């Protein structure tokens, strides 16, 4: 129970379904903030109090479990290391994979619980004895992308009570139940960067690592920067270019070179990608996709989709797209969905290592 409206209603529905429910709030920061500002961050002291008040109304036990050290090692330090290596990670995906459905799930099972229920917007069912992860009924809130790296053995112990609902209905239900969090804003930022300034956060951890902004076409130096960790592929604003393009068109970040410190920039069309290679593929249902399977690939939590064909080559997931995608960065996840009338079943997930 994060202290937000989604996990509150998920807990209430679990109670209504007749389950023996215990509320757990995760303490993920060694120094949690005392006040929450709008939609900035989460896991503050205020959030813990909000979650406890909901548990009191529902009449369920409530505990705070301290995973701050594990969260720092598995999510925050991973986030910093990935940016230092010129990649663009997704910390929410890592948190689900390593904290909520690893550290939390392991402890819950050890204590005798049967499952972990969360307020994620995704649907989960058993098909032929195997878990099937699907998009939620609310396209705008769907979180199947950030859950797609979960393994079959993790999903067997998962419950997503909100998967068939839309957010507006969840808020209305919270109001009807008399839950004070009904109107609480959603958290849209990285929870451990509550001010939303990712570049400053990374500079505090990595310091300055000066490098050059280089024109990908001519090799000319167009400016300087304090570290490749301040950029991501597809970025247009905040580049600090001293020399405008001859054709007057905007330039975008095309690639990052952490060893040389070069950030290569160029025209938007150079961002076009038709082939994606991903490492460490996972299969939520426990079944690897067949070579040459038709699918829809998604490279961002919301948006960035294209149909294509996927195969497994030397342990890596290789996706050839029918349509170009832009702004595809190493470190992001590529998630494959079944290409059928609904197109909402997750087939696989992998971490992008290269594109063409």
Summarize the structure.
By secondary structure, the chain is an alpha+beta fold. It has helices at residues 5-16, 45-58, 68-84, 91-110, 144-147, 152-155, 167-176, 198-206, and strands spanning 23-27, 62-66, 116-117, 122-127, 130-135, 158-159, 211-215, 221-225, 252-257, 262-266, 273-282, 293-298, 305-313, 316-325, 333-338, 346-355.
Describe it:
With 356 residues, the chain is α+β, with helices and mostly antiparallel strands. The chain contains eight helices and 16 strands. The strands form five sheets. The chain has a six-stranded antiparallel β-barrel. Strands 8-7-10-9 form a four-stranded mixed β-sheet, with no helix packed on it. The radius of gyration is 21 Å and the shape is globular.
Chain-wise SSE layout:
Layout: H1 5-16, E1 23-27, H2 45-58, E2 62-66, H3 68-84, H4 91-110, E3 116-117, E4 122-127, E5 130-135, H5 144-147, H6 152-155, E6 158-159, H7 167-176, H8 198-206, E7 211-215, E8 221-225, E9 252-257, E10 262-266, E11 273-282, E12 293-298, E13 305-313, E14 316-325, E15 333-338, E16 346-355
Parallel strand pairs: 1-2, 3-6, 7-10
Antiparallel strand pairs: 4-5, 7-8, 9-10, 11-14, 11-16, 12-13, 12-15, 13-14, 15-16
């Amino acid at each position: 129970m994060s202290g937000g409206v989604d996990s509150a209603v998920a807990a209430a529905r679990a109670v209504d379904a007749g389950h023996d429910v215990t509320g757990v709030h995760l303490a993920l920061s060694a120094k949690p903030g005392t006040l929450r500002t709008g939609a900035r961050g989460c896991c503050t002291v205020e959030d813990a109090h909000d979650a406890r008040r909901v548990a009191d109304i529902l009449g369920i036990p409530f505990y705070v479990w301290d995973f701050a050290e594990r969260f720092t090692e598995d999510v925050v330090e991973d986030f910093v290391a990935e940016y230092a290596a010129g990649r663009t990670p997704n910390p929410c995906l890592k948190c689900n994979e390593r904290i909520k459905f690893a550290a939390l799930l392991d402890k819950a099972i050890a204590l005798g619980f049967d499952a972990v229920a969360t307020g994620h917007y995704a649907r989960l069912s058993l098909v032929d004895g195997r878990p099937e992860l699907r998009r939620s009924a609310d396209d705008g809130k769907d979180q199947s992308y950030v859950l797609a790296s979960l393994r079959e053995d993790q999903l067997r112990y998962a419950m997503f009570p909100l998967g068939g609902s839309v957010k507006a209905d969840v808020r209305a239900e919270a109001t009807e139940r008399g839950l004070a969090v009904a109107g609480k804003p959603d958290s849209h930022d990285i929870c451990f960067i509550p001010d939303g300034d990712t570049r400053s956060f990374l500079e505090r951890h990595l310091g300055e690592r000066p490098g050059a902004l280089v024109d990908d076409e001519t090799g000319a130096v167009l400016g300087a920067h304090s570290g490749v960790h301040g950029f991501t592929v597809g970025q247009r604003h905040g580049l600090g270019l001293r020399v405008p393009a001859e054709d007057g068109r905007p330039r975008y970040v095309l690639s990052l070179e952490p060893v040389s410190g070069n950030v290569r920039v160029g025209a938007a069309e150079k961002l076009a990608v038709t082939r994606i290679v991903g490492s460490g593929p996972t299969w939520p249902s426990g079944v690897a996709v067949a070579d040459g399977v038709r699918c829809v690939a998604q490279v961002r939590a919301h948006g960035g989709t294209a149909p294509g064909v996927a195969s497994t080559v030397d342990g890596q997931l290789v996706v050839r797209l029918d349509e170009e995608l832009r702004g595809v960065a190493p470190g992001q996840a590529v998630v494959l969905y079944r290409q059928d009338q609904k197109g909402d079943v997750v087939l696989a997930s992998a971490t992008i290592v290269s594109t063409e």
